[in-house]
Amino acid sequence: MGSAGNDTVVLLATPAGATIDLGAGTDTLTLSSAGDTVNLKNIESVVGLGGNDTVVLLNTVAGATIDLGAGTDTLTLSSAGGSVNLSSIESVVGLGGNDTVVLQTSPAGATIDLGAGTDTLTLSAAGGSVNLSNIESVLGLGGTDTVVLQSSPAARPSIWAPAPIP
Ligand SMILES: [Ca+2]
Ligand SMILES: [Ca+2]
To answer: Are 74 and 90 in contact (CB under 8 A)?
Structure first.
């Protein structure tokens, strides 16, 4: 458990399934280079390195930034939903909450399933290829996007693309 202050924690080795709660403040956690399987709470910034990381968010700090680095990484969002900014995550799993996900970078062929709730995904400005499930709204930016809908909500999702430059 972290203190109320701002904690900066670097994991050197972590038991699989460890739960890490850094409490109040603006906290940063760096996962071990071997890859970690962890359950996280109250962490504003998560940095993964080259290992394969499996991360479960027990809660989502609004606007949290999560970059799991190289490797084959999986992130499960909090069941309460929330807004997160993601980089370098091969598989993102959302649960019943309303999720607002912004991809800052996405690996080619990343799989993103935001589950139940009313979910919004913003694609990376760099473009890329993604496989999507259960997302009510998808917003693309200036990049070249390849999107495969593996399953879409009953009402077709609304997908926006920027207007062409006149
Ligand atoms: Ca990683
Ligand atoms: Ca959801």
So the answer is: yes
Q: How many residues does the chain have?
A: 166
Closest ligand to Cα 113? 2
CA of 47 to the centre of ligand 1 (A): 8
Residue 8 lies in a domain: no
Residue 72 lies in a domain: yes
Q: Tens-digit pLDDT profile for the chain (166 aa)? A: 677 789 998 988 888 999 999 999 999 999 999 999 999 999 999 999 999 999 999 999 999 999 999 999 999 999 999 999 999 999 999 999 999 999 999 999 999 999 999 999 999 999 999 999 999 999 999 999 999 999 877 765 566 666 666 6
Ligand number nearest to the C-alpha of 74: 1
**CA distances, 78 to each of 34, 140, 155 (Å):** 24, 24, 24
Q: Which ligand is nearest to the CA of 80?
A: 2
Distance 20 CA to ligand 1 centre (A): 17
Looking at the CA of 47, name the nearest ligand.
Answer: 1
In a domain, residue 103? The reply is yes
The structural domain count of the chain equals 1
**Quick check: is 76 in a domain?**
yes
Residue span of the structural domain in which 91 resides: 15-156
Q: What Rg do the C-alpha atoms of the chain give, in angstroms?
A: 16
